[in-house]
Write a structure and sequence with these properties.
The complex is a heterodimer of chains A (192) and B (257).
Chain A: H1 2-20, H2 37-50, H3 55-64, H4 71-78, H5 82-93, H6 97-109, H7 117-129, H8 138-155, H9 158-171, H10 176-191
Helix pairs in contact in A: 2-3, 3-4, 4-5, 5-6, 6-7, 7-8, 8-9, 9-10
Chain B: H1 10-14, E1 19-24, H2 30-45, E2 50-57, H3 61-70, H4 74-84, H5 91-105, E3 108-113, H6 116-125, H7 128-132, H8 139-157, E4 163-168, H9 169-172, H10 182-185, E5 194-201, E6 203-205, E7 211-213, H11 219-222, E8 226-229, E9 238-244
Parallel strand pairs in B: 1-4, 1-5, 2-3, 2-4, 5-9
Antiparallel strand pairs in B: 6-7, 8-9
Helix pairs in contact in B: 2-5, 4-5
Classes of the chains: A mainly alpha (192), B alpha/beta (257).
Chain lengths: 192, 257
């Protein structure tokens, strides 16, 4: 009897490890007292790919632990991102600079809200000029300028686009060829 | 919501695209892999030359090339799916069938992804909070960058090359503010003729008997096979959604729709 139980236990353990234990998706106990917010938020995000049937459970858990940004995935899953947008607005009003940037992103892509590019640019500028953001890294600044550039390009506001573009070219090493070519294109447009 | 079209035709959707990304809305639904088999057959006939797949790591390039060349050694590929991509009933088998179908169709198979070890190491180097704050680049985005470079190198190798790539939807397009999708990454490298096809609906089975409905459509549409133009969230390229009926895939892997 003991041998049979041991065999079953080992077999189940083997199956469990093979099915769930790799770095794509980990089966973590949602009630583990040592669970961190980061782990819960990761489980929430990854469940949208690997376990949508447990997405709401994980995302609510992450939210209850303080990760309001996890509500994004509930929005994708249910098609209703109202809670996510409301939390972003609430946190932005409370001077959470990351929330200001997320709200700018929400308005730029129009997920769960009416797309509003002017509002998005205003919020990205609020983020860049915020008193808490005096020591942003070059990478952080470039990321935001890329977002702003994309919007001005869509709006065909070439003068404003050039400002962000110049900042990107001066500070970014990754996509430099692309942005230099964009600069040439815009310069041609403006010289016509 | 755009109008539905029951004549699901991948050649029409692809148009003159150099890259068609087939995105599954989850990795658990076996039916998406069988739908991808339908798609790649039609796309091969339309002139596509390569089939790239997220679910195989670049480290298996040699094994994949050997299988491509000889038709032998498939068990190594199937074992990889069994060990790492068993996210639902018949799922690893269906991934295997997809790779077999690509070879049979005459498409060059391309293993896209990093190894699990590389991913684990990158995971440890950048938390999602730091990624969101723009302090570092997370694993998901680094994978997107790597796949983009791989696909671009194939497309630029010859003007005859056209790639169909199979992946999760949140690689094809942006999921979170800090996770740039292949849709925009690839345009920065000068490739603009790109189409995204998102697979939705179907039946999600964890075991033979534990199945869940996978369609978010209204009741009359749940059992229908159709496509429509557009994607409900951000996409920088021409996009479509293909809805497969809420039906089970047979245990021998046959489609029922």
């Amino acid at each position: 009897m003991v041998k049979i139980s041991l065999f079953i236990l080992l077999t189940l353990n083997f199956i469990f490890n093979n099915v769930y234990a790799n770095s794509l998706w980990h089966a973590i106990d949602i009630n583990d007292p040592n669970l961190t917010v980061e782990q819960a938020a990761q489980q929430c995000a990854k469940s949208s790919m690997f376990a949508p049937y447990s997405l709401e459970e994980w995302c609510e858990k992450a939210y209850s632990m303080g990760s309001w940004r996890s509500l994004l995935y509930i929005g994708y899953y249910t098609g209703d991102g109202t809670r996510y947008v409301n939390e972003a607005k609430k946190h932005a009003l409370a001077d959470d600079v990351e929330a200001i940037k997320i709200l700018a992103w929400i308005y730029s892509n129009g997920s769960f809200v009416e797309r509003d590019l002017s509002q998005s640019i205003k919020l990205y500028n609020d983020y860049l000029n915020h008193k808490k953001n005096k020591s942003l890294t070059k990478h952080q600044l470039v990321t935001v300028h890329k977002a702003i550039y994309t919007i001005y390009k869509e709006l065909k506001d070439w003068q404003e686009a050039l400002e962000s573009l110049q900042f990107i070219i001066d500070n970014d090493d990754e996509d430099n060829i692309f942005f230099k070519n964009e600069m040439l294109d815009i310069s041609k447009k403006l010289s016509k | 919501m755009n109008k539905i079209n029951t004549d699901v035709n991948y050649k029409t959707m692809a148009g003159n695209a150099r890259l068609v990304m087939l995105g599954e809305s989850n990795h658990n639904t076996a039916g998406y892999k069988y739908e991808a088999i339908k798609a790649i057959k039609q796309l091969k006939a339309a002139g596509f030359t390569h089939f790239a797949i997220e679910m195989l790591p670049q480290s298996m390039k040699e094994q994949v090339a050997f299988y491509q060349r000889t038709g032998k050694g498939f068990e190594v590929i199937q074992r990889y799916f069994n060990d790492n991509w068993a996210w639902g009933y018949l799922v690893p088998h269906a991934y295997g069938e997809l790779v077999k179908a690509a070879r049979t169709a005459g498409l060059n198979i391309v293993a896209l992804d990093m190894t699990l070890e590389q991913m684990a190491s990158l995971d440890a180097a950048c938390s999602s909070d730091n990624a969101e704050a723009g302090i570092c680049t997370d694993t998901h985005t680094k994978r997107n960058n790597s796949w983009t470079n791989n696909i671009v190198s194939i497309i630029k190798e010859s003007n005859q090359h056209r790639v169909v790539a199979f992946m999760h939807r949140w690689h094809a397009v942006e999921a979170a503010s800090y996770q740039e999708g292949i849709d925009t990454l690839i345009q920065k490298q000068g490739i603009h003729n790109v189409v995204f096809v998102d697979f939705i609906g179907g039946m999600l089975c964890l075991t033979e008997k534990d199945c869940r409905e996978g369609s978010a459509e209204d009741t009359p549409l749940k059992q229908q096979y159709f496509y429509r133009e557009g994607f409900p969230y951000k996409s920088a390229i021409k996009s479509f959604q293909v809805h497969i009926p809420e039906k089970r895939v047979n245990s021998n892997g046959e489609l029922q729709w």
